[in-house]
Amino acid sequence: MMQQKQTISYKVISLFIKAVILLLSIVYIFNKLVVANELNFLIEKLKTSKLSYVALVFVLMFVNWGLEAWKWQYLIKPLERISFTKSLQSVFSGVTVSIFMPNRIGEFAGRIFYLERADKIKATIKNFIGSISQLTVTMVFGLAAIAFAYYQNVLRLDEIELVKKNYWMLMLLVLFFNWLFFLYPNFMGLNFGTKANYVEALYDVDYKQWLYVFMLSMMRYIVFLMQFFILLMAFDIQVGFQTAVTVIALLFFVSSFIPSFATTEVITRGATAVYLFNLANIDTSFVIIVSLLLWAINLAIPALLGGLFVWKMKFFKEKK
After folding, report:
1. What are phi and psi of 100, to 5 degrees?
2. Half-sphere exposure in the Cβ direction for 259 (13 Å, CA)
3. For the CA atoms of the chain, what is the radius of gyration?
């Protein structure tokens, strides 16, 4: 009888948490698009765009999150085998959970609470590996963009000397992160022995697995780039492909280091985009709308889709 009451209590608490998550995500998106009148702004600007290009970016959103689901399914396989469909649902749930949080730090929760058997801490570590891989790709492409922008004089950066002096230090930092988290997988296991079970979850990725995860992260990054570039074309922003890719890569690089709160994320990223495109002497009249539209397609819509799957999350182990 006591166990039955406890089970009912857990179910009630679980439903309450899921309802709060869904409510917060919907309120945040509604406030961002409707209350702030940005939805009307979007609709008005979309009337002047090439809608077939926008539709293509929407299709690429599924490619983007599909690659992330593929990566998550691969990373979590040593702990628990899940289908691609379940992985995709958990990834969308993660977007729902995290969209209203600073820097979307809660994304991992939507994923790990979809798992039934895997240790939650080890699963979180696996998710961390995927995040570090994606960040590494962003840093590598960003540093390459800085070098290209400097030597090809793409941007008007008076402070570029500071970047030039620290460029190789930044590159060494990227390589160090790769070595620390991937390229020397047994280092911590050798030092801490068999007791470091959770540490082992971080260092049991061998070189081939790391390269596989890295390639998926790079493919996803290329999708990001293409989405942004296609939206520039959708609004007839006149910019060459090389210049656009350089500025977009710099935007992703800079954005990854800017702490953002849910209430200011779109504004911060939009302002950063305008600043960088202005330095490249590119018309910035539609850059804000491109940033906003990309946020709506890549985050707001997936968060709403994730709301359909949040109910499948398991916060408590069921007693048998």
Report:
1. -95, 10
2. 1
3. 21
**Residue 242: phi, psi to the nearest 5?**
-60, -45
Tens of pLDDT, residues 238-271: 888 888 898 899 888 888 777 665 545 666 777 7
> How crowded is residue 23: how many other Cβ atoms within 10 Å of its Cβ?
12
Instruction: List, for residues 225-246, the tens digit of each pLDDT value.
Output: 999 999 998 888 888 888 889 8
Of 219, 130, 136, the residue nearest 178 (C-alpha): 136
Rounded-to-integer distance, Cα 208 and Cα 211, Å: 5
Q: Which two tokens stand for residue 242?
A: 């090389």
Which amino acid does the sequence have at 216? L
Contact 95, 62 (CB under 8 A): no
Length of the chain: 320
- Check if the beta carbon of residue 282 is closer than 8 Å to that of residue 239: yes
Residues 31/36/39/42 CA torsion (nearest 10 deg): -140
Q: Which of 18, 32, 15 shows the shortest CA–CA distance to 100?
A: 32
pTM across the whole model: 0.82
Q: Taking a C-beta distance cutoff of 8 angstroms, is the pair 304, 29 a contact?
A: yes
Domain segments of the chain as ranges:
2-312
CA 122 to chain centre: 20
